[in-house]
Amino acid sequence: MHDPAPPSSTDSTPRPSRAPRLGAWWGVVCLLLAIGVFTWDGPISDATRSLNLGGDLRRELEAFQQYGQGGAILLVALLIWMLDPPRRRRLLDYGLALGATALVVVPMKMLCGRPRPKFEDPAWFLGPFGKYSVNEEVGLRYAWEVGSGISSDLWSMPSSHTAYAVVMSVFLGTLYPRIRPLVIGLALLVAACRVLFGAHYPADVLVGAGVALLVALPIVRSWRGVRLLDWIWVRVVDRNAKPAWPRTTR
Length: 250
Description:
Largest sheet: 2 strands, antiparallel
Radius of gyration: 20 Å
Shape: globular
């Protein structure tokens, strides 16, 4: 809060942008596509799982589908912290976007209660009150019974891997526009792998991507994490502190 980047030609107050609004439309498109593809979830899932990929190709794809997850998050944060000090505060935007997305995605999983593709019930949604027979040992369970032996077997929709990959791509693509094709491609690869390996149906990954775009884009593009810390700092720590947000290097 006390050592903003030195004034430069790039240190201007960020202007309101139409980008969050335009990005939100892509989120809506993903959700509409999920509705359209829903009736094809079963056949598509069966076809992709029948490929039975193995060997090095499978291992490589399984590694790539962790883009946006814990290890990748730590690596990206460390690289930005070490190589791009003026943008360190932008990690606050990423953290807020990731946390807000998780607060939407995880409850949705429990409320939808869609069994994973391995159960071959693509049209089945438990809702908050339905039970499903996970296996003979566990028996009938609600989707929200965390820690009761269901693991995430009833959490197919939406895909959290896809959602978190999209959040990371939104963040990196906003900070570094030149790599947007790369990070968009990585998010698409994660979504494809989740279907390919039988973890989700196509509609699940589309809903995950749609939710992430609707939640993360406005937060990252509007610097909400940086501004939230400013608001807390001025009201709780130092009322005379100057907010970092207008003076932070883009």
